[in-house]
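fyi for ur records
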Amino acid sequence: MKTGVLLINLGSPDSPTVPHVRKYLREFLMDGRVLDAPWPIRFFIVHCCILPTRPKQSAEAYHKIWTSEGSPLVVTSRKVHAELQKRLDMPVALAMRYQQPSVSDAIINLRGQNVTDLFVIPMFPHFAMSSFETAGEHVKKVAARLAPGMTVRIAPPYYDNPHYIKALAATASPYLEKDYDHLLFSFHGIPERHLRKANPTCGNCLRVQGCCGSAPEAHQTCYRVQCLKTAGEFVRVASVTRYSVAFQSRLGREAWLQPYADTELVRLAKDGIRKLAVICPAFVADCLETIEEIGMRGRNTFLSAGGEQFTLIPCLNDHPLWIEALEKMIPRPPQQLEPLTQVKVLAPA
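which gave:
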């Protein structure tokens, strides 16, 4: 069997124009693992409530972060792909769950290089049905159609992988050496419903204090406990003592994981924090959610509430230790991996 590697991230519009942003949002939001309502309801919400206005707002945000090379997320992902390929003696491909470069093109490319054993690394350190799971399931679906003989193995979440934590700490080190009062971990949020749906073994999910401690078997698919574990490992390695955790990017009116990042920024400023540093460990490459949502809007929120200094710590991007961490995730021999595909997760609506 010839092994190949596929890196898969979320994706980005082809350009910061309204038509391209609308196309991207339609594909993203019509994914049953992102908006997990029954198809007719999902279609109505997306096409009648979101797409009439959201693409223009998002296009304006994308315009603020777009570079001469294109989307920061895709540009950085291509650099990571190139650097990882230099380290490996096996084919490495890059794909996005939505838009370009596509999973179909990546599978066809790897098939053409006689790859029969595909090791997939979702570029999401934590398990969530709307990111990690949908990426892996989509690759398996496309591979079954385009390369039926190809074995697909999904790397497990690496939220507490020591090499990932080491890379995070190294990336943040130059910023934490400067004067700051508090470090805020801002993770991407998910609806509380998603957390319960992915953790049917935890009957106390979000209902009691320390719920995750009572059901350790749920940890392999519990986004919240994995985020808290990342923060805990980071502060241990980086010797941080003043920190808190929040969740960003909520959409709609239903309850998402709390505390919300925008309200936490105000609270910290009101509580006397003047110099704030923010890190976003759920994102391995800087993108709209880190550069614009936190670095621009979040900065304005904090400063307007009374803060004086706001520092956004960059994502891992193409840091050498992050490339090294990815390399070390690839099992040798393949049989050493315990595939995530054995995890039982509820199917989308």
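DSSP finds twelve helices and eight strands in the chain. thats all i got for now
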